[in-house]
């Protein structure tokens, strides 16, 4: 029997694959560099990414997210190694689950929605990591086009300006990856 989350899990897997490619760029000397997210340096972003992966793993394991995860870790190598390990284990957990719903705070969501939202976050933060490391690493067109269709479901006016900056104006003919990061408040 095919898992009801296979579409979301497959998207999550591609998001993780893209982001793992960005994580290889991280070196200890770049941890204090700013990211495309105002007020965040790379180390803070990596810690946030670890927290997010813990929450996504909690969602698939228990069907509930507490929203209280905090990761402690050492500088770059340990933090990045921890993040890579979590990301790979997360993909494995989502591709083998049959969990159909996840409770986040007082909301009941489908597992597919949670894994797709995770894919959006993981991808955009992979892009942020590359930018903080001084590398232009566009989100692959096919992945970005799929995530762009989902992004406006997950990022609304209520999320701005706290979680995401205002969308950056972008031509509809721009590459899907540029449109995705622009929608999420980044300058491509």
From TrEMBL:
Residues 26-130 form the Mycothiol-dependent maleylpyruvate isomerase metal-binding domain. It comes from the Bacteria. Pfam families: MDMPI_N. This is Mycothiol-dependent maleylpyruvate isomerase metal-binding domain-containing protein. It comes from Kibdelosporangium persicum. The lineage of its organism: Bacteria, Bacillati, Actinomycetota, Actinomycetes, Pseudonocardiales.
